[in-house]
Amino acid sequence: MFAARIRSALPAARPLAQTSRVGALQRTTPAFARTIITKRYTKDHEWVSYDSETKIGTVSITDHAQQSLGDVVFVELPSAGSEIKQGDQIGAVESVKAASDIYAPISGIIEEINETLGDQPNLLNKSPEDEGWLCKIQVTNPAELDDLLNEEAYTKLCEDGEDH
């Protein structure tokens, strides 16, 4: 008797045969924005990982670069808020072997720098493409990514020894 009262209080359900699968999916599946992460490389051995949703590019040197430099002892980073253009010098890395300038792989405004590198510059050796990131840039011209190398082209560059 209790179940009968509940059924009478609920709106009449449509039979399953009348509910299209597409319609059901459209009503029950929330809309998701697709974020695309694009990683590109320069011939000077910097990389940028660009997030299409946030428009932020994370920048550092490649594993190949840190191996060539040896033990990193000092990292000079750009100032947050600086406006930079693709190809501008944005910092430097000093190691026991050499010093090397860092160039902006993409144009934008420096949003954040990796403060940890001030005390632990060797993070560039331990984790150059993860914890050893240098800075984050609010990208102003994402089309510049097309001028950079994809992973396959960068790997070929390193294998061929075409370092600049």
Structure, described:
It is a single chain. This protein is α+β, with helices and mostly antiparallel strands. It has one domain: Beta Barrel (OB fold (Dihydrolipoamide Acetyltransferase, E2P)). 25% of the residues lie in helices and 29% in strands. It contains 6 helices and 9 strands. The strands form 2 sheets. The protein has a 6-stranded antiparallel beta sheet with strand order 1-2-3-9-8-5. It has a 3-stranded antiparallel beta sheet with strand order 4-6-7. The model is unreliable at 1-30 (pLDDT under 50). The modification N6-lipoyllysine is found at residue 97.
List the helices and strands and how they pair.
Layout: H1 2-9, H2 21-28, E1 37-41, E2 46-51, E3 56-61, H3 63-69, E4 72-76, E5 83-84, E6 89-95, E7 99-103, E8 108-113, H4 116-119, H5 123-126, E9 135-139, H6 151-160
Antiparallel strand pairs: 1-2, 2-3, 3-9, 4-6, 5-8, 6-7, 8-9
Q: Into how many domains do the coordinates divide?
A: 1
**Biggest sheet: strands side by side, in what order?**
1-2-3-9-8-5
Spell out the CATH superfamily.
RNA polymerase II/Efflux pump adaptor protein, barrel-sandwich hybrid domain
Rg from C-alpha positions? 25 Å
CATH topology: OB fold (Dihydrolipoamide Acetyltransferase, E2P)
Low-confidence stretches: 1-30
Q: What is the CA-CA span between the terminal residues?
A: 84 Å
CATH class: Mainly Beta
- The topology string of helices and strands comes to HHEEEHEEEEEHHEH
Taking the sheet with the most strands, its summary is: 6 strands, antiparallel
CATH architecture: Beta Barrel
Pfam family, one: GCV_H
Keywords: Lipoyl, Mitochondrion, Transit peptide
InterPro entries: 2-oxoA_DH_lipoyl-BS (IPR003016), Biotin_lipoyl (IPR000089), GCV_H (IPR002930), GCV_H/Fam206 (IPR033753), GCV_H_sub (IPR017453), Single_hybrid_motif (IPR011053)
Protein name: Glycine cleavage system H protein
